[in-house]
Every structure is written in structure tokens, then in C-alpha cells.
Model the fold of this input.
Amino acid sequence: MENAADFTDLSSNDAKSAEMRMGANWFYWLALLSVISTFLVYVVNFQTHFIGLGMSEYLDNRGAQSGTELGKGMAFAFELAIAGIFAAFGYFARKGSDMAFIVGLFVYIFDAVVLLGYREFFAFGVHLLVMFFIFKGLLASRRRYDPSVDKTGA
Done:
């Protein structure tokens, strides 16, 4: 335990990297919860998206409107692809890519707006919480390379 980083001291590079990875891990959680939500919709016919994505809800509605198995299968495939995209954001963000954090955060903000259109307020609140932690990971990533970020007090 001697080599463990003191996470309260954000001036050490180990602590900054650990906080960055914790923020990036939220993209993995998003991908996992999206897959779980997709399977709940298609296997159990559970229609509430309190843990899923707004884009998934949109695709579920489009697949149901098509009325065909092909339409539902295409929606299912697209939902799994979206989950894979969020996992890719997590992978690159854990590697230290600020662009992965930023683009992933903007995609997730768009997803939150879609949820507001479906009046899924609990899911929107979960989105806000996750956005906070992803943003903290982005700030930690920036702190590793740019000392002026530490001076802002963020």
C-alpha cells in the first residue's frame, strides 16, 4: 500500500490519472446499462428506459412502428452498436484522449435531450449525474497536461 496514490492530493499524477480513469469508466457503465436495457425491452418486453439511453427508446419506438421482425432486428442491432460506441469512448478516454471525453459527453447530452422529449425525467436525472462524473474525468485528464486547469480551482 505504500505505492497507492493519495486520491485527496490531486497534485500527484497518479491521482489525476486515477480520477481520469474513474470518469472514463462511466462510458463503460453507460454501454453496459444500455445493453441491459435493450435486452429488457426485447426479451422481457419491459418498456421503461430508466437505465437506458434516449436513442435506444427512439429506436425501440421506430422498430415497433415498423411492425416487422426485420425492423425490430435492425433497431436491436443499432442499439448494440450505440452501446459499442460508448464503450469505445470509454476505451479512448481511459487512454487519455480528451477528444473522447468531449465527443462522448456531447453525444450523451444529445441523448439526455431525447429523453426529455419522451418525458423520462428519472432517466434524465441519471444522465445529469453521469455527465457530472464524466466531466470530472475530463477535468482530471486536462490537469495531467495543463497546469493552468489546476489554478482555476475546479
In short: The first helix runs from residue 13 to 43. The chain is about 80% helix and 0% strand. Residues 38 and 65 are 17 Å apart (CA to CA).
